[in-house]
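Suppose a colleague, Dr. K., hands you the sequence of a protein chain of 94 amino acids and asks what its three-dimensional shape might be. Before reaching for any lab equipment, you can write down a predicted structure in C-alpha coordinate form. Begin with the sequence itself:
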Amino acid sequence: MVPFYGQGMNAGFQDVLVLDRILDETQGDLSKALATYTARRHPDAIAICDLAMYNYVEMRSKARWRRPRGQGTAGARTDHTSSGSARCGRRWGA
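The predicted structure, expressed as C-alpha coordinates, is then:
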Protein backbone atom coordinates (compact mmCIF):
# COMPACT_ATOMS: atom_id res chain seq x y z
CA MET A 1 0.00 0.00 0.00
CA VAL A 2 1.39 3.35 -0.96
CA PRO A 3 1.30 5.81 1.93
CA PHE A 4 -0.53 8.57 0.09
CA TYR A 5 -4.10 8.05 1.21
CA GLY A 6 -3.65 8.51 4.96
CA GLN A 7 -5.44 5.31 5.86
CA GLY A 8 -2.73 3.30 7.61
CA MET A 9 -3.76 4.16 11.14
CA ASN A 10 -7.48 3.92 10.35
CA ALA A 11 -6.96 0.47 8.86
CA GLY A 12 -4.97 -0.55 11.94
CA PHE A 13 -7.75 0.57 14.30
CA GLN A 14 -10.32 -1.30 12.23
CA ASP A 15 -8.11 -4.40 12.19
CA VAL A 16 -7.94 -4.42 16.00
CA LEU A 17 -11.71 -4.08 16.36
CA VAL A 18 -12.48 -6.74 13.78
CA LEU A 19 -9.96 -9.21 15.20
CA ASP A 20 -11.24 -8.64 18.74
CA ARG A 21 -14.82 -9.37 17.65
CA ILE A 22 -13.75 -12.45 15.73
CA LEU A 23 -11.78 -13.74 18.71
CA ASP A 24 -14.98 -13.42 20.74
CA GLU A 25 -16.98 -15.23 18.04
CA THR A 26 -14.47 -18.10 17.88
CA GLN A 27 -14.05 -18.24 21.67
CA GLY A 28 -10.35 -17.50 21.38
CA ASP A 29 -9.52 -20.21 18.83
CA LEU A 30 -6.64 -18.42 17.13
CA SER A 31 -6.52 -20.71 14.10
CA LYS A 32 -10.22 -20.16 13.31
CA ALA A 33 -10.01 -16.48 14.20
CA LEU A 34 -7.14 -15.78 11.82
CA ALA A 35 -8.80 -17.64 8.94
CA THR A 36 -12.05 -15.72 9.53
CA TYR A 37 -10.19 -12.43 9.93
CA THR A 38 -8.35 -12.93 6.64
CA ALA A 39 -11.57 -13.76 4.80
CA ARG A 40 -13.31 -10.66 6.18
CA ARG A 41 -10.51 -8.12 5.89
CA HIS A 42 -8.89 -9.12 2.60
CA PRO A 43 -11.53 -7.40 0.41
CA ASP A 44 -11.12 -4.22 2.49
CA ALA A 45 -7.33 -4.39 2.16
CA ILE A 46 -7.58 -4.71 -1.63
CA ALA A 47 -10.04 -1.79 -1.78
CA ILE A 48 -7.89 0.55 0.32
CA CYS A 49 -4.77 -0.35 -1.67
CA ASP A 50 -6.62 0.45 -4.90
CA LEU A 51 -7.88 3.76 -3.51
CA ALA A 52 -4.42 4.69 -2.24
CA MET A 53 -2.81 3.94 -5.60
CA TYR A 54 -5.50 5.87 -7.47
CA ASN A 55 -4.97 8.84 -5.16
CA TYR A 56 -1.20 8.63 -5.60
CA VAL A 57 -1.45 8.59 -9.39
CA GLU A 58 -3.99 11.43 -9.37
CA MET A 59 -1.88 13.63 -7.07
CA ARG A 60 1.36 12.79 -8.90
CA SER A 61 -0.09 14.07 -12.15
CA LYS A 62 -0.91 17.42 -10.53
CA ALA A 63 2.42 17.97 -8.78
CA ARG A 64 4.67 20.81 -9.94
CA TRP A 65 8.29 19.79 -10.05
CA ARG A 66 9.81 22.99 -11.42
CA ARG A 67 10.73 25.87 -9.17
CA PRO A 68 8.76 29.01 -10.13
CA ARG A 69 10.76 31.95 -11.49
CA GLY A 70 12.05 34.36 -8.94
CA GLN A 71 12.56 31.72 -6.28
CA GLY A 72 16.11 30.89 -5.42
CA THR A 73 17.33 27.74 -3.80
CA ALA A 74 15.98 28.63 -0.35
CA GLY A 75 14.86 25.44 1.31
CA ALA A 76 16.76 23.31 -1.18
CA ARG A 77 19.82 21.28 -0.40
CA THR A 78 22.78 21.07 -2.75
CA ASP A 79 24.46 17.70 -3.18
CA HIS A 80 27.79 17.43 -4.93
CA THR A 81 28.31 14.37 -7.04
CA SER A 82 31.66 12.72 -7.56
CA SER A 83 32.03 14.57 -10.89
CA GLY A 84 32.01 17.89 -9.05
CA SER A 85 28.72 19.12 -10.47
CA ALA A 86 25.95 20.25 -8.14
CA ARG A 87 22.45 18.85 -8.00
CA CYS A 88 19.79 20.90 -6.19
CA GLY A 89 16.49 19.61 -4.94
CA ARG A 90 14.32 19.20 -1.93
CA ARG A 91 15.15 16.26 0.30
CA TRP A 92 12.33 14.78 2.35
CA GLY A 93 13.33 14.31 5.95
CA ALA A 94 16.49 16.39 5.63
